[in-house]
Design a protein that fits this description.
This protein is of the alpha/beta class. The protein has 18 helices and 14 strands. Strand 6 (about 400-405) and strand 7 (about 410) form a beta hairpin. The relative contact order is 0.08.
């Protein structure tokens, strides 16, 4: 387990470095300026030591020499401040460019993930990885750039300056140093696993909050508040426990390294005092050495704090990279055909599919749909109606068998061209943040005003749109804001009316619309479907009586097919479904 964790950490570091490598110019400049900053900072104790040596005794002070040294110190301090400012600007540039790249690639990955991954993971958990985890990673990375390079260069620079004054004291300091490194390394290993658990639990909490807030009406309608609070308290308690452990181990770093630092300072003071008494060094040089002892030990405190933050950052980065490494939706075939305009012919041959291997769903499914046919798909819940739609749109690939459109296997054509030939209205509406016009023209951005209005009138949406505060330019929030469910569905229908592709999929498309409007929409659909192959999924069997063929599904198979009257006369499963809806 430890080896696997260490391997994962090394892999994450390697990936982070690959992102940083893109900005090597800023990185090189940052390292150079860190060295300049440290060199100038370490030069000040030398000037202070020289100034101390100019104060020999009462009345024996070289004021002219001290004034000259003060002028030098002012120049050095100003140069140091300027170098630090530019260095921090470079570090910010690197950090936020890396974060931008990671977020962009993570979002691009989400767009290319197969639907089965999205279906299997909560939206809040995915959002947490892209937002919260990347933010945590940014904080750690910025602190790493700001303090890590400077700290490392300070340590080596201080040793070099100390060597020029006294080799003995420098050796004593170097002997004690490994103790500080050992303490920091031990605590860093402990904190990584704790921060990883903290990050995972934070994602779980975000997902739960998003789920509860998004469905608060249902929660309150079923009096589920107490259970939701209990569940939240349980997740919150776990997050508290993991966070406390992570903070406890990380908080040990500073006092532990400070203890070692105090040992270093005391060693320099005692050894330096004996050397000064014996004439080995001057009092001014001793003051410089004591200043260097502070300068030398200070980076260990900073680096230990940085290491803790970096552990948290790496744990968060690891979760983001896990998302980015998920298997993408299989790419289109190399010589994939582009379906320009489908003729509406759809064939399914011996199709088998299941979401999980242990639970069979569709087996040896055969269907032949002729151009322009209206195909209604009915059956009890869970029989495979929506699954069939997912397969036709190639949201999922079949396990075996073949689906052809216009005589071409859909695996041998591009997904984009296949889906462009379908118009789809689902029971679950989806609208994005933006104007009503932008939502309608999603599939046809270059549509004219006349085309948009004509589509809205055909969908019986024009009336309510004109009553909105700014008509077609009214801005609606995510998922429709204050629009009713029926109004949102009318906008989704308008979206399809505008594009008018050669094939249509209507999955309970009028389920949220009042009966009077539904009759008008059915008339509009009838006009729209004329000459177009249409797949209509319906629970209300009164809406599909005019279909050319009705497929009656049960347990993933077609048990009956035919026109409405034929199926009623058979007195089979369809007749039972129909009579159950209209029996007195």
């Amino acid at each position: 387990m430890k080896q696997e964790s260490a391997k994962r950490r090394r892999t994450t570091i390697r990936k982070v470095l690959n992102y940083i490598r893109r900005y090597w110019v800023y990185l090189g400049l940052s390292i150079l300026l860190a060295a300049v900053t440290v060199a100038l900072t370490l030069y000040i104790p030398i000037l202070i030591g020289e100034a101390v040596d100019l104060i020999v005794d009462q009345g024996l002070v070289d004021f002219a020499g001290i004034a000259a040294i003060l002028k030098q110190m002012i120049v050095v301090i100003l140069l140091t401040a300027a170098a630090q400012w530019v260095m921090n600007a470079c570090n910010n540039k690197i950090t936020y460019n890396v974060i931008r790249d990671i977020r962009r690639e993570a979002f691009d990955k989400i767009e290319r993930l197969p639907l089965k991954y999205i279906d299997a993971h909560s939206y809040g958990e995915i959002v947490s990885r892209v937002i919260a985890d990347v933010d945590q990673f940014a904080d750690g990375l910025l602190m790493g750039f700001t303090q890590f390079f400077t700290g490392v260069v300070t340590i080596f620079g201080t040793l070099i300056f100390m060597l020029t004054i006294s080799v003995k004291i420098t050796v004593a300091v170097v002997v004690i140093t490994p103790l500080s490194l050992f303490v920091a390394s031990y605590i860093a290993k402990k904190t990584f696993s704790m921060f990883k658990l903290q990050s995972e639990t934070r994602g779980e909490q975000t997902a739960f909050i998003e789920e509860m807030v998004g469905n608060q009406k249902v929660v309150q309608a079923f009096s589920h508040e107490e259970e939701a609070l209990e569940r939240f308290d349980e997740v919150n308690e776990r997050l508290r426990k993991y966070s406390l452990r992570a903070i406890f181990f990380s908080s040990l770093t500073n006092p532990a390294t400070r203890f070692v630092n105090s040992l270093v300072y005391a060693t320099v003071g005692v050894v330096g005092a004996f050397l000064a008494i014996s004439g080995g060094i001057t009092v001014g040089q001793l003051s410089s050495l004591l200043s260097y002892a502070n300068q030398y030990t200070k980076p260990f405190n900073e680096i230990s704090g940085v290491v803790t933050e970096l552990q948290n950052a790496l744990a968060c980065a690891g979760r983001v990279f896990e998302l980015m490494e998920e298997e993408s939706e299989p790419a289109d075939a190399v010589n994939a055909a582009v379906l320009e305009k489908a003729d509406g012919r759809v064939e399914l041959s011996n199709v088998s599919f299941s979401y999980t291997p242990e639970q069979r769903l569709i087996e040896n499914f055969n269907l032949s749909v002729q151009p322009g046919q209206r195909v209604a798909i009915v059956g009890p819940t869970g029989c495979g109606k929506t699954t069939l739609i997912n397969l036709l749109m190639r949201f999922y690939d079949v396990n075996s068998g073949e689906i052809r459109v216009s005589g071409i296997p859909i695996q041998k054509m591009t997904r984009k061209s296949l889906r462009a030939n379908y118009g789809m209205v689902l029971q679950e509406t989806w609208l994005r943040s933006g104007t009503v016009r932008e939502n309608i023209t999603m599939g046809k951005p270059d549509a004219t005003e006349e085309e948009i209005i004509a589509a809205a009138k055909a969908a019986h949406a024009h009336g309510f749109i004109k009553r909105l505060p700014k008509g077609y330019d009214t801005v609606i929030t995510e998922d429709g804001g204050n629009l009713s469910q029926g109004q949102k569905q009318l906008l989704c229908i308008t979206r399809v009316m505008l594009c008018l592709p050669p094939m249509l999929i209507l999955d309970e498309a009028t389920s949220s619309i009042d009966t009077r409007t539904e009759l008008k929409i059915q008339e509009a659909f009838a006009r729209m479907m004329r000459g177009r192959t249409s797949f209509i999924v319906a629970h209300r069997l009164s809406t599909i009586q005019e279909a050319d063929v009705i497929l009656v599904m049960r347990d993933g198979s077609i048990v009956e097919q035919g026109r409405h009257e034929e199926l009623l006369q058979k007195g089979g499963f369809y007749a039972k479904l129909y009579n159950s809806q209209f029996a007195k």
